[in-house]
Design a protein that fits this description.
6% of the residues lie in helices and 56% in strands. By secondary structure, it is mainly beta.
């Protein structure tokens, strides 16, 4: 994730959190991606602040209560020309994103590159906290957090 926040002692800051705990599958049939299912363990998100990470477990994201986020492709995705030749290609993927127990339809901008048996997929999409019933956590040192941020991802799928 990437969100702008206003901190009492610093001013404007970009909060960035990451986790390597992402699992999923992608199904390709012919020249289409027919299914993608991804799950993220939100309990392992880490930023540059243990205080922020702790707050997200019980407030805001509430990862103690809602420990995972998921994405499921809802429309087949035609493989762009050049995808099978190792070229870097771009596409739009439509699916259901579930965060904080709330599911919303989203369209993700993705970039993909096939190298041998591995497909590297990177992308991002804007996310509005209000759309997922998330109240931005504030406190003594956090004066405000923007409702709109970005979630970013880098996923490697290996052919089985």
């Amino acid at each position: 994730y990437r969100f702008e926040e206003e901190l009492a002692s610093i001013g404007t800051n970009t909060a960035v959190g990451r986790t390597p705990d992402v699992t999923g599958t992608m199904t390709v049939a012919g020249d289409e991606v027919t299914a993608v299912d991804v799950e993220v363990d939100l309990t392992t998100l880490q930023s540059d602040s243990g205080t922020r990470d702790g707050a997200l477990r019980s407030r805001g994201l509430e990862s103690d209560t809602f420990p995972t986020a998921t994405f499921a492709l809802t429309e087949p995705l035609a493989l762009p020309a050049g995808a099978d030749g190792g070229e870097r290609v771009t596409a739009e993927a439509t699916g259901d994103l579930t965060i904080h127990g709330v599911t919303q339809a989203v369209t993700l901008s993705v970039e993909a590159q096939l190298s041998g048996t591995t497909a590297a997929i990177v992308g991002q999409a804007p996310v509005l906290l209000a759309d997922f019933d998330i109240d931005p956590p504030t406190g003594f040192s956090v004066l405000s957090i923007n409702d709109q941020g970005t979630f970013e991802f880098q996923i490697f799928f290996t052919r089985q």
